[in-house]
Design goal:
Blueprint: H1 6-15, E1 18-22, H2 27-39, E2 44-48, H3 54-68, E3 73-77, H4 82-90, E4 96-97, H5 103-112, E5 116-117, E6 119-120, H6 123-131, E7 137-139, H7 142-153, E8 162-164, H8 172-181, E9 185-188, H9 199-217
Parallel strand pairs: 1-2, 1-9, 2-3, 4-5, 6-7, 7-8, 8-9
The structure holds 2-keto 3 deoxy 6 phospho gluconate (ELE).
2-keto 3 deoxy 6 phospho gluconate is lined by residues 21, 48, 77-78, 97-99, 140, 165-168, 187-191.
Length: 218
Amino acid sequence: MPRYSTAAIQQIVLDTPIVPVFFHADVAYAQRILQACYEGGLRVFEFTNRGANAFEVFSALMPFVQKNCPGMLLGIGTIYTAEDAERFIQAGADFVVQPCLTTEVAEVCRNHGTPWLPGTMTVGEVYQATKLGAAIVKIFPGNVVGPGFIKSLRGPMPTVPLMVTGGVEPTEESLREWFAAGVNVVGMGSQLFKNVDDTQAFSQQIAQLLEFVGTLKK
Ligand SMILES: O=C(O)C(=O)C[C@H](O)[C@H](O)COP(=O)(O)O
């Protein structure tokens, strides 16, 4: 049984519309970063399936989130296969993110009632994602398609929930541009985690970004 319904997850993601995209092979380090994100006000965390021990680290993060970060969603990213989708869902993943769109992952997510966020970069793929039941459609890589793509897409597809990831920068200028173009959520990895040694300063940076995004949505 998923911890949250798709509707609940959509609401949480849209309420705190910055999704940190993170991988680290060390559990204690990953927990420290996750906690810092939570303290900055984030309520969604995407851990990526990018290393040999990603499954072990993810499995250790889930009880940590349940104990220390109430209300925080923990999802898994970089999923390509049905097998991986299945095992991470069994380990408690609240949602599944893909760099691309594969129908077998859509099917596993549908069978479990787990929200599915496929990666797309054409209008046809966005349409296919909505037809296959995507909770939120990810546009990836954002820095390649650019905000102009989102703006144009909003003509024929005004209401599809869209998350952009890939090269998104944690600056007011960049966030203003993406949200003005019409995204509902931004995902950030490498740019967001450039400087995290001082976790307190990192939490503060996140809080400021969230506050800024809140002003954009008004
Ligand atoms: O693999 C996935 O499922 C993903 O979600 C891809 C990530 O969104 C990007 O790799 C983040 O890109 P950067 O912000 O440029 O580091």
